[in-house]
Design goal:
The chain has a three-stranded mixed beta sheet, with helices on one face. It starts with a helix and ends with a helix. The protein is an alpha+beta fold. It contains six helices and five strands. It is 51% helix and 14% strand. Strand 2 and strand 3 form a beta hairpin. The protein has helices at residues 2-6, 24-36, 43-50, 76-82, 94-104, 107-127; strands at residues 16-19, 55-58, 65-68, 84-86, 89-91.
């Protein structure tokens, strides 16, 4: 959930989330880049990334990583248009983070959602 942390959200799920446009070229590049970064992807994991599975959890690397191909988000272009820049780093809008967490529907996401939604109201109020 570093996306939200970069916006000031004080909670964490202890992993990094990566969201890229879902294209065959990007999927192949992500699998290769993860290996170059020290993630010893198994062939089944690499295949999931290359074929564009919406959500791939990787727990055998230098840190825990959730590779996300936008579950809950209409298109990458829509999310890119809503992005927020934090010190030059593109971060998904909180609405997209919330939509993704709802779509993933994991226990820890369901536990985090009420706090994330409350933070969204606070964050939007600060931006006005």
């Amino acid at each position: 959930m570093p996306w939200a942390i970069l916006l000031g959200y004080p909670d964490t799920t202890q992993d990094a989330d990566v969201f890229v446009e879902k294209t065959p070229e990007n999927a192949a590049a992500v699998a290769e880049a993860l290996r170059e970064l020290g993630f010893p992807l198994t062939e089944p994991q690499a295949d999931e990334v290359r074929r564009g599975k919406d959500f791939v959890q990787i727990r055998n690397g230098p840190f825990d990583l959730d590779h996300v191909f936008a579950p809950g988000i209409e298109t990458f272009d829509d999310a890119w248009a809503r992005r927020v820049e934090v010190e030059g780093f593109p971060v998904c809008h909180l609405d997209d983070i919330i939509a993704s967490k709802k779509a993933a529907n994991r226990v820890r996401d369901r536990e985090t959602l009420p706090r994330l939604i409350a933070f969204r109201e606070y964050w939007l109020g600060r931006r006005r």
